[in-house]
Amino acid sequence: MTVIQNFLRNNIVNTALSVILLLGAALVIFSPDFLIIKWGANYAVRILFTYLILGFLFLLVGQKRLMMISLLSAAALAVFLKTMTNSEMAPPVKTKDEPVIKVAHFNVNNSNDGFQTTLETIQSTEADLISITETNPLWDSLLMVRLSPDYPFHYTQPSLGLFGMTLFSKNPFTYVDTIRYKEIPNVVGGIALDEDNTVNFICSHTLPALNYRYYNRLKEHLNTISEYCNRTARPILTFGDYHSVPWSNEIAEFREQTNLNDSRRGFTPTFPHGSSTVFEVPIDHIFFSDEFKCLSFSTVSSLYTTHMGIQGTFQLKSKISEDAKTEN
Hints:
Layout: H1 2-9, H2 11-29, H3 35-41, H4 44-60, H5 64-84, E1 100-107, H6 115-124, E2 129-133, H7 137-147, E3 153-157, E4 165-169, E5 173-181, E6 184-192, E7 198-205, H8 212-230, E8 236-241, H9 249-258, E9 261-262, E10 284-288, E11 292-300, E12 309-316, H10 319-327
Parallel strand pairs: 1-2, 7-8
Antiparallel strand pairs: 1-12, 2-4, 3-4, 5-6, 6-7, 8-10, 9-10, 11-12
C-alpha cells in the first residue's frame, strides 16, 4: 500500500492520471467520429461504474484529488446518460378504453442450437406483433408451423444471408411491403387495432459499424428509416437491430429527426434472469410516436442466449386527455 501511495504522490504521475481520467469521461460525452472512441463509448455504463470503483480505491490510498476527479467524472457520465436516454422511471398507467398493442422483436442468429426453446420463448411473449430477423428458410418454416395458428397474418422474407425477416401479427395488416437501403430490406406496414385505429410500423436490421465505410452505411440507413417515418402517418412504431446504443450520436440524431421516443427506460440492459456480461450493450430498440404511451419494456432471453430479443407494450393515448393538454 505504501508503494502505491508513494507512486501516486508523484506530481507527474498524479497529474497524468488526472488528465487521463478527465479525458476519458470527455471522450465518452463528446465522442468524436473516431470508431475506436465510439466503440469505447458504447460501454459508457461500465466506464461509469469503473470511475466509481476508482474513486473508492483512491479514497483508500488517501488521494483526495484523484478521488474527486473520479467521482465527478462518474457524476458527469450519469447526467449524460440520463439526458441521452428515456429518463422516465415509472411506466404510465394503463387506461380502460384505448387500444393496446404489444410488440416483440427477436434475432435468431445466436439461437440455432436451441430451435425448440427459442420457438417456445418467442411464443410465450404473446405479443400482438412479432418480428424476427436473420431468418433463413429453415427458421422461416419452423416459425410458420409454430406461430401461424395463433398469428393468422404473416409476412416472410427468408434469406441465406443476414437479412431474412419474418413478421407475425394477430391483427390484420392494412398493408405490408419492403423498402430497401441498398441491398438491406426494411419491412413496412400497418396494423389494424380496431375499426378506428391503425398503427404504422417499420422493422429494420442495420449492419454494425465495423469500419468507417460501414459506419457511413449505418448513418445512411438510419436516415432512410427517418425519412420513411417522417412521410408516414402516425401513430408509428419503429423497431429492430439498430447496432447503436441509446446514448450514441446516431440514435440521438435519429430521435431528433423523427421526434420518436425510446421505449427503454434508463441506460442499463435489463435481463429477466438478472445476468449480464461486460460486452453486452443495448443495440436493439423500439421507438414510438407521441400518440402512444409505453406501458412496459423488457429484454427477452433463453437458455441459449442472455439476450435474444426485446418486447414492449404500448397504448394509444386518450384523445380527451390530449385535447385537455392542448387547451392548457
